Amino acid sequence: DIQMTQSPSSVSASVGDRVIITCRASQDISNWLAWYQQKPGKAPKLLIYSASSLQSGVPSRFSGSGSGTDFTLTISSLQPEDFAVYFCQQASSFPLTFGGGTKVEIK
Amino acid sequence: QAQLVQSGAEVRKPGASVKVSCRASGYSFTSYDIHWVRQATGQGPEWMGWVNPSSGGTGYAQRFQGRVTMTRNISISTAYMELSSLTSEDTAVYYCARVSIVAGDWFDPWGLGTPVTVSP
To answer: What is the model's pLDDT at position B74?
Structure first.
């Protein structure tokens, strides 16, 4: 199975800050990576797919990059509604696997 | 717009089974695979498997093989996930999710989740 490791596990930031979350795969997954946002009591929401493609309706302050084993999710200017948990997911091979999550908290 | 509506919360005793439903609307049910993902409190999501609504074909994560069954009823646009031999470690929120319209096994939309509690 492909292991997905996210860092940091949590980050404290202020509105307007730039936040970068990383995700590392245990083997090459090309660009078969997605990022999700999850708020308390809600289902995950797709933000980024194919490592860098922005899902329709998602604000442009979210961006993704990377290929192979190392990936990043960047929030260019953190907004109040962005405080949530973020997960990466690999879609290169079954079983599909998710990272452990990064909680973005208010500083 | 595409929407997935799941059945309500369930409580089961260890050793029992649970069957969760997921009704699709707003799109052609047979055109996209439905996957099932569970999430224990404070944990990352865990993928369980998929069902192809058109063919009924399935694929399961190895750790659930022999214990999970995913089916569908085309006439009512509903997918099902049944998990047997429950233990306390199966306590989680169970989500159905449709593969996105863009190529790749990523998920959009998701159902709201069905909490399953396994307790003596």
So the answer is: 97
